[in-house]
Specification:
- β4 and β5 form a beta hairpin.
- The strands form two sheets. A four-stranded antiparallel β-sheet has the order 2-1-3-6, with no helix packed on it.
- It has one helix and seven strands; from the N terminus they run αβββββββ.
- About 9% of the residues have low confidence.
- The chain has one domain: Gamma-B Crystallin, domain 1, CATH 2.60.20.
- The protein is of the alpha+beta class.
Length: 171
């Protein structure tokens, strides 16, 4: 068995380290590509699905409802998935769009119709059988929050009344 000359083992070790670093970088990039479309798909649905303005809440697949006025009054919006920032949903076209209350009442618009949800919501309702709904003061699911257990509503937000920036489902 020939002896390993000085430096040959170092070269093999260096190749192994480089391979490990490149593999880790490739894996991280693949995970980022896989995760990004999910968030974009959720934002797309929250912006454009026919469920967002469905008045038949029991029949809607979007189980969180947020209202412009207290007591679940005025214009509303149904939300299907968590929203990181009510003012910047990214449906995958390279732009950011604000989430708005639905337009109702052509000749006499409901209060809040077409207005941005961010910092304008007063009440909410969670129709989900399993998940807890949380509305946060700040974007990114941060700051004070109002929490609704499954099948619970809040007639007037206590902590985020007209100061709300994100929404999250939690288990």
């Amino acid at each position: 068995m020939p002896a390993i000359a000085y430096g040959e083992g170092d070269s093999a070790l260096r190749r192994t380290r480089i391979t490990a670093v490149l593999s880790a970088a490739l894996l991280a990039s693949a995970l980022a590509v896989i995760a990004a479309p999910t968030a974009q798909a959720d934002d797309f649905d929250n912006l454009y699905s026919e469920q967002v303005c469905n008045e038949n809440w029991g029949g809607s697949s979007f189980k969180f409802h947020i209202w412009y006025n207290s007591g679940q009054n005025g214009s509303f919006r149904n939300i299907g998935s968590s929203v990181y920032d009510f003012n910047a949903l990214r449906p995958g076209d390279g732009h950011a769009y604000p989430l708005k209350f639905c337009n109702f009442g052509a000749s006499s618009p409901w209060p809040g119709s077409g207005q941005n949800i961010k910092n304008n919501a007063a009440s909410g309702e969670n129709d989900h059988y399993k998940y807890t709904a949380r509305v946060f003061f700040y974007s990114g699911y941060k700051g004070a929050q109002d929490v609704m257990a499954p099948y619970q509503h809040i007639d007037q937000f206590r902590n985020v009344y007209n100061n709300n920036a994100s929404f999250q489902w939690t288990s």
